[in-house]
Amino acid sequence: MTQTDVVRVAQALFRDRFPGMDRMLPVFDTAGIRTRQSAMPLDWYLTPRSWPERTQAYLDIAVGMFARAAEAALDQAGLKGSDVDVVITVSSTGIATPSLEARAMARMGFRSDAARVPVFGLGCAGGATGLALAGRLAQASPGAVILVVVVELCTLSFRMEDLTKADIVATALFGDGSAACVVRCGGEAGFASIEAAGEHTWPGSLDVMGWRVGPTGLGVIFDRAIPPFARENLRPAMVGMLERQGLELEDVDRFICHPGGMKVIDALEGSLSLDQGSLDHEREVLADHGNMSAPTVLYVLDRARRQGLPNRSVVTALGPGFTLSTVTLRAAADAALRRPRPGDRAAARGTGSGRV
Q1: Residue pLDDT, tens place only, 312-328
Q2: Among 124, 154, 181, 257, which one carries the catalytic annotation?
């Protein structure tokens, strides 16, 4: 769906329901988004929906998204579902028990002894944290194939009742998407190695981002503006994490960031002393897909690896907690020889990787 279409529908729906809607409309223009994906046709969102209806839509759509992303990543890694030893499923926008990887087992051909690790509640940080978790599990089991699949259907939280400013901002920003990657310890395949990972959770920050639970489903919480928080607090947290890895900011050739929104991207560049416009892949992903929550940073990683990763990069994302999650990558020496061919879109739904 185009941002133009979203604005048109939002005006029609919210003008009589939300006082001051006209003053909120500029957020749609300044979001930096041209197009987004949605789980359901636009008309579906125009009717009030119950939590069971939203959950059924999540189950109907998310399993297919899981499978397509996983199949693409495994295909690029030259693997099949039966080769997978551990499946990590990251999703915070719907509830599925059994979880998505169990529902996709037959289609994917996963072995009956494959370990399942469903992860909920990480929000926008889920892509980076899922990759970090895969690295730790791979290191603990050399040779094991770890498949990470990240699926988010943010638009299913769209609601017309009990509107807040946060709901309007979410309507302007969020879309749906999935991504996947393969991680293995040992062997020579892959485009990068995981050097380290780290997290930082700020005390007293639970209200920055999260879900509120209502009668009709999950509703977004933005009780503090994220761009000024990131501008003020990100740098010292990043410096501390890199110091624990024996690194400094100057040792990082490229930050691969979750683009929460255009103002967040600007804040990240300012906090990390990057030249304005340095986070170009982030702006491109945001423009083409919106903020898909957890998968978004893996879309950015996918674009960066297609262009050719520099020697050292840091994947970073902010999410509920309020938490900064990072993964430090070292590009494979021969990554350029294995770079996907132009037009190869298998990783558009997920980042395929080996070592990572």
Answers
A1: 999 999 999 899 999 99
A2: 124
